[in-house]
Amino acid sequence: MNTSGNFNGSSGAVDESARQATLGIFVLTFAFGSTGNLLVLLVVAKKHSRSINDIFIVHLAIADLSFILLCLPVFIYMQVSNFRGSLAYCNIIWPMMTVSFCAGIFTVTLMAIHRCKVILRPFENTLQKRQLIVCFVVIWFLSFLVALPLIIVARVSPSGDCYEDWPTADHKRVYTAVLAGLQYFVPLIIIAAAYVRIGGELFFSKRRSSFTSPAKTTEDVRKQENKKIAKILLTIVLSFAICMLPTHMAWILIDFGGKTEKKAALVIFKFSDVLAVFHSCLNPLIYGTVTRQFREDYIRYLSFILHCCKSTSLTTSYKNGSGVRILKNAERQETRRNCTRTDLLEMDHLGPTQSTGLLIQQMV
Question: What pTM was estimated for this model as a whole?
Answer without folding.
Answer: 0.75
